[in-house]
């Protein structure tokens, strides 16, 4: 039997088991980046990623056959991050472009310096606006915009319904827009 792209091994007692190696190889980097976005610290993000997979490993024998592993792992990681943020009572968010920047030839030879300055100012305002959002709104935006998850998957990852995920995304985008404009960005 298969769970998405994952092989499920049938146990003697009728339970299904997804191989842990498959989950780890497929999702480790994404879980780490998710944690890094929430915590802003690479060491803490690595700890959360490790804890996420420890919890996932322990839960594998109890998995339902129709489980989608990505949202399930994001939910574990999100909950662990929120626990850490509550403990330190400090929410800090790293800018979107730090871990997603990819080398591109335009980065070497600038064609339009004026456009680059305007773009850098816009990015700076966007980072500031993101920093003013609640952790839940940032997480919803990250899962949608960076990870490409659907509303169903975001709902699963955050432990809410699909409709609540859509509503959360709408409110997060509106809050981001208001913060951005409030900081002097153009609507």
List keywords for this structure.
187 residues; mainly alpha; three-stranded antiparallel β-sheet; 66% helix; 8 helices; disordered N terminus; 5% strand; 3 strands
Task: Summarize the entry for a quick read.
With 187 residues, the chain is mainly alpha-helical. It has helices at residues 20-39, 42-59, 69-88, 96-100, 113-131, 135-146, 151-158, 162-182; strands spanning 2-3, 6-10, 16-18.
General description of the model:
- The chain is mainly alpha-helical.
- Helices cover 66% and strands 5% of the residues.
- It has eight helices and three strands.
- Strands 1-2-3 form a three-stranded antiparallel beta sheet.
- A hairpin with a 5-residue loop joins strand 2 (6-10) and strand 3.
- The radius of gyration is 19 Å and the shape is globular.
- The chain starts with a strand and ends in a 5-residue tail after the last helix.
- The model is unreliable at 1-13 and 102-108 (pLDDT under 50).
């Amino acid at each position: 039997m298969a769970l998405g792209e994952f092989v499920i091994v049938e146990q003697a007692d009728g339970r299904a088991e997804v191989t842990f190696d498959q989950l780890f190889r497929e999702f480790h980097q994404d879980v780490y980046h998710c944690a890094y976005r929430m915590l802003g610290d690479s060491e803490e993000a690595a700890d959360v990623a490790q804890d996420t997979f420890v919890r996932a490993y322990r839960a594998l024998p109890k998995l339902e056959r129709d489980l989608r592993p990505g949202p399930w792992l994001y939910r574990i990681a999100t909950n662990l991050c929120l626990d850490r943020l509550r403990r330190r009572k400090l929410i800090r968010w790293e800018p979107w472009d730090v871990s997603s920047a990819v080398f591109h030839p335009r980065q070497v030879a600038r064609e339009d310096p004026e456009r680059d300055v305007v773009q850098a100012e816009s990015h700076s305002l966007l980072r500031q606006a993101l920093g003013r959002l609640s952790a839940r709104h940032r997480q919803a935006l990250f899962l949608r915009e960076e990870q490409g998850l659907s509303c169903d998957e975001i709902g699963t990852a955050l432990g809410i319904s699909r409709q609540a995920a859509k509503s959360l995304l709408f409110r997060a985008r509106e809050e981001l827009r208001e913060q951005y404009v409030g900081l002097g960005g153009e609507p």
